[in-house]
Automatic annotation (TrEMBL):
Residues 27-387 form the FAD dependent oxidoreductase domain. The keyword NAD does not apply. One of its GO terms (molecular function) is oxidoreductase activity. One of its GO terms (cellular component) is cytoplasm. This is FAD-dependent oxidoreductase. InterPro entries: FAD-dep_OxRdtase, FAD/NAD-bd_sf. It comes from Marinibacterium profundimaris. It holds the Pfam family DAO. SUPFAM superfamilies: FAD/NAD(P)-binding domain. The keyword Oxidoreductase applies.
Length: 429
């Protein structure tokens, strides 16, 4: 088994990182070469704005190249819960923003000629317990009536053609949801940004940021660059950046590990025996699982296997064993199927699990996607580019306050307690 992201292993790396030292002056510096930062850079470069991207490792190293491969519309909350928390108008606006972002991804892929197996597969949210059916049905009725008629509720007997597991009691089908090959998309996005004029430095972590007249001086081990505006697009990896430039975010972003395994390619008979519906799937548990088939027919199966703030080979291996057990419990027929890949990545959570975009500490930012970044971050990249160019009316998160997480300064010591709490909720639900 390989301890690396399937998306990294099966895509061609970005071919044109900037050679030589980090230097010069640009209109905008973007910190982070994931979906958010790269689409911001692509948009800016297309509009004639000089832009540089600084990436601590390589293009797509973080969450954009380590997720489950889902582009699911909808948010991290039940829609009724979002209405109660945000108000009806903002909840609807945010819901529609997720829809717009998936539409935008499809448009970018077409415009830039990115070959990444994008497909409108639909998402099926599965009721893991009989007691979850009523709540899932109520959420469906509100969503179907108010924001998304392209939804359908499936009774337990209707799941047969979708998923062959006896663990589920019904489901909600979201027709607009999609999937794609994340590694090919993120590298294609980098190629597009470069083609339009953006410069992208890899292995260039930001180590300092200081005022320089009306702009900023950004330090890296490879040199220093100056810019009028700075965009922070680091999400779950904000806490790995040196403290000086991103201290505001480390007190508000909780970095939580999410872990994934991928089987060997499955035969047609094995697919028919597991996921004949060939959609993206998520379960209704707080500590649940998400899964789909890859373009080469592997079962990609992930979840919050352990409440950990680290992702390295040791941590990933421990989580892989937990995921293997969950996979076998859900699909006993997969017990003897080999796992070819195991990896983890950091999810950028906010206290209330709503994303944020705005300006703070002299930087524009978009992050806090709380496990829904693959679908939202492309839109947020364009929003940040608009803000850098003085356009302030495209941000669906404008005005949403972002308080600190109490007693949090970048190291989430409380994650085991959170895991115990949600585990208890799942047991008694």
């Amino acid at each position: 088994m390989q301890y690396q992201s399937y998306w990294h292993a099966t895509s061609t790396p970005f071919a044109a990182p900037q050679a030589g030292p980090v230097e010069g002056k640009v209109d905008v510096v973007v910190i982070g070469a994931g979906f958010t930062g790269l689409n911001a850079a692509r948009k800016l470069a297309r509009e004639g704005v000089s832009v540089a991207v600084l990436e601590a490792r390589h293009v797509g190293f973080g969450g954009s190249g380590r997720n489950g491969g889902h582009l699911n519309n909808g948010m991290a909350h039940g829609y009724g819960e979002a209405k109660a928390h945000l108000g009806a108008d903002r909840a609807k606006m945010l819901w529609q923003a997720y829809d717009r972002s998936i539409d935008m991804i499809e448009d970018v892929i077409s415009e830039e000629g990115i070959d990444c197996d994008f497909r409108r597969s639909g998402k099926l949210k599965l009721a893991s317990k009989a007691s979850h059916v009523a709540g899932l049905r109520a959420n469906f009725e509100t969503i179907h009536r108010e924001v998304d008629p392209d939804t359908r509720f499936l009774e337990k007997h209707e799941l047969t053609g979708e998923i062959n597991s006896d663990q589920f009691h019904g489901g909600m089908l979201y027709g607009k949801s999609a999937m794609m090959h994340m590694g090919r998309y993120v590298n294609g996005l980098a190629e597009a940004a470069h083609r339009h004029g953006a410069r992208i430095w890899e292995e260039a972590p930001v180590t300092g940021r200081t005022r320089d007249g009306t702009g900023w001086k950004i330090d890296t081990p490879k040199g220093t660059i100056r810019a009028e505006r700075v965009i922070a697009a680091t999400n779950g990896y904000s806490n790995s950046v040196e403290k000086a430039p991103l201290d505001f975010f480390r007190k508000r972003i909780i970095s939580v590990g999410s872990f994934i395994v991928a089987t060997r390619p499955l035969s047609d008979a094995e697919i028919a025996a597991t996921l004949p519906g060939d959609r993206t799937y998520v379960t209704s548990l707080n500590i649940g699982n998400y899964f789909r088939l890859s373009p080469d027919k592997r079962l990609i199966f992930g979840g919050r296997a352990r409440f950990s703030a680290t992702s390295d080979q040791s941590s990933d291996a421990k989580s892989g064993k937990v995921l293997r057990a969950a996979l076998t419990q859900m699909f006993p027929q997969m017990a003897e199927v080999d796992l070819d890949y195991c990896w983890g990545g950091m999810v950028g959570m906010t206290k209330d699990r709503y994303p944020r975009a705005g300006e703070a500490d002299g930087m524009l930012y978009g992050m806090g996607y709380s496990g829904h970044g693959a679908q939202m971050s492309t839109l947020m990249g364009q929003v940040l580019a608009d803000m850098a160019m003085g356009r302030t009316d495209t941000n669906p998160l404008d005005g949403l306050s972002w308080p600190k997480v109490p007693l949090h300064s970048g190291k989430p010591w409380f994650l085991p307690l959170v895991g115990m709490y949600f585990g208890l909720k799942d047991r008694i639900s």
